[in-house]
Specification:
The protein is of the alpha+beta class. The chain folds into 2 domains: 55 residues, no CATH class; 170 residues, no CATH class. Helices cover 63% and strands 13% of the residues. It contains 8 helices and 4 strands. The chain has a 4-stranded antiparallel sheet with strand order 2-3-1-4. α1 packs antiparallel against α2, α5 packs antiparallel against α6 and α7 packs antiparallel against α8.
Length: 238
């Protein structure tokens, strides 16, 4: 039995015949209205459920970080770690980063650029050099994470690149270049404090470290810090 039939059965059991008949009619009308309302509400709920997935995608915000590709200028490849260390030291002595990037083979990175044309030009005038791409990927992340990444790949990157270029041209002294890079790294460190991703926070924290060892020239160390930061960001988001 449906619920409506049970209700009609209950009404027929009480009172006089005429009263029962009138009561039954009113009950049926009331029940009919109730069912109609319930049907309308059910239809509305079903429609809303069907629309929710569309509403969540229509007008959805773009990824918080749009991604950015960098170009690593390398001076050669090595087959083992010892050979890579020797080549890295050679790069450092000539003002290069001397960063060893291992993706199955050891690549000795001298510098990083955000324009492919710059990397291409330098490989054309440096025998045995080549470049390869590293991309900090597009991703949806927390606001603080996105702001830190945008700072790293934008203002911080530009500040360090400028310091290295001006130092090489003789337009900055070593102490001036170091102050510029150290200031940018302090800001990067501050940005990493609000990052929610543990991996990204750790990468930014390490990237913000600046302490030039005596075995490095300032120019080579600035370039090392530059390359290291981009590699760390890529690895944290891979």
């Amino acid at each position: 039995m449906s619920e409506y039939d049970s209700g009609a059965y209950f009404v027929r059991r009480g009172g006089r015949r005429n009263r029962n008949r009138n009561g039954s009619g009113r009950s049926r009308r009331a029940a009919g209205v109730l069912i109609t309302v319930l049907l309308i509400l059910t239809a509305a709920i079903c429609a809303l459920v069907a629309l929710l997935p569309r509403l969540s995608t229509v007008g959805a915000p773009a990824p918080d970080f749009d991604g950015k590709t960098f170009y690593m200028l390398a001076i050669g490849r090595a087959t083992d770690r010892e050979q890579a260390q020797t080549m890295a030291q050679y790069a450092v002595e000539r003002g290069g980063a001397g960063y060893i990037y291992n993706d199955g083979e050891y690549k000795i990175v001298a510098a990083v650029y955000d324009k492919e044309s710059d990397a291409k030009t330098l490989t054309s005038v440096n025998e045995n050099s080549y470049y390869f791409e590293l991309t900090v990927p597009k991703c949806n992340i927390a606001d603080a994470d996105a702001r830190a990444l945008r700072y790293l790949t934008g203002e911080w990157y530009d500040a360090v690149q400028t310091a290295a270029s001006e130092l090489q041209r003789g337009n900055l002294t070593e102490s001036q270049a170091e102050r510029s890079v150290a200031s940018a790294c302090l800001k990067l460190k501050a940005a990493s404090d609000g990052v929610s991703s543990v991996l990204l926070a750790a990468a930014l924290d390490e990237a913000s470290e600046y302490s030039c060892p005596k075995t490095y020239t300032v120019l080579s160390y600035v370039r090392y810090v530059h390359v290291r930061a981009i590699v760390l960001a890529v690895l944290a988001l891979s």
